[in-house]
Amino acid sequence: MQHRSGATIWFTGLSGAGKSTIARAVESLVDCPAEVLDGDELRATISSELGFSAEDRDRHVLRVGYIAELLARNGIVALVPVIAPYARARDRVRRRHADRGSTYLEVHVATPLTVCARRDPKGLYGKASRGELRGLTGVDDPYEPPTAPDLRLDTTVMDVPTAADQVVRLLAEHGLLR
Ligand SMILES: Nc1ncnc2c1ncn2[C@@H]1O[C@H](COP(=O)(O)OP(=O)(O)OP(=O)(O)O)[C@@H](O)[C@H]1O
Ligand SMILES: [Mg+2]
After folding, report:
1. What is the pLDDT of residues 65-106, one digit of tens each?
2. How far, in Å, is the centroid of ligand 1 from the Cα of 17?
3. In the chain, what are the domains?
4. DSSP characters for 33-96?
5. Which residue has a Cα nearest atom 11 of ligand 1?
6. pLDDT given at position 1
7. How far, in Å, is the centroid of ligand 2 from the Cα of 99?
8. pTM score above 0.90
9. Among the listed residues 6, 39, 7, the one whose alpha carbon sits nearest the alpha carbon of residue 24
10. Residues with CB under 6 A from ligand 1
């Protein structure tokens, strides 16, 4: 049987940082089996009953991490653009992968809040500033930046193709593109 090496590539960062955009760009560049597990889609499906309390955010991250690990263990590159604001939940996902011998790589899409708020692709920052939305990550809800990500991308100074290319290089460095 052909050897397939899967992995989870987790894109963490603020809303509007570019996680989904970059994950989709990576998906279109690689020719290995890859699947995007997008936070928005998963919140509308497997986590539709969850809100945005710290507990619910962690529950969501653990669920997505569980699915990503299954894919990774079965030879698929799981590209996961999910904010995952708390280090403890990201660490639990990382440990789950390590315990099962699956590769977990963390990409911090470290676009600063000011840039995310200026882009505001979903209008969330505007709503927060008008007092119509509470608990927005990085505004009035915590975001714990990863201290040692495998890759850090600040899309203020980097276009989408360049950012995606850096992720592809990371995959290649880890022997995931054979
Ligand atoms: N270099 C870049 N990399 C990524 N996105 C960029 C870049 N420059 C501009 N953008 C724009 O920034 C926006 C990023 O939105 P995107 O939905 O990818 O963010 P996200 O991190 O997935 O947010 P959320 O957590 O809300 O899903 C898009 O409108 C994208 O076109
Ligand atoms: Mg997104």
Report:
1. 999 999 999 999 999 999 999 999 999 999 999 999 999 999
2. 5
3. 7-173 (3.40.50.300)
4. -EEE--HHHHHHTTTTT--SSHHHHHHHHHHHHHHHHHHHHTT-EEEEE-----HHHHHHHHHH
5. 18
6. 46
7. 28
8. yes
9. 39
10. 13, 15-22, 39-40, 81, 83, 109, 119, 121-122, 155, 158-160, 163
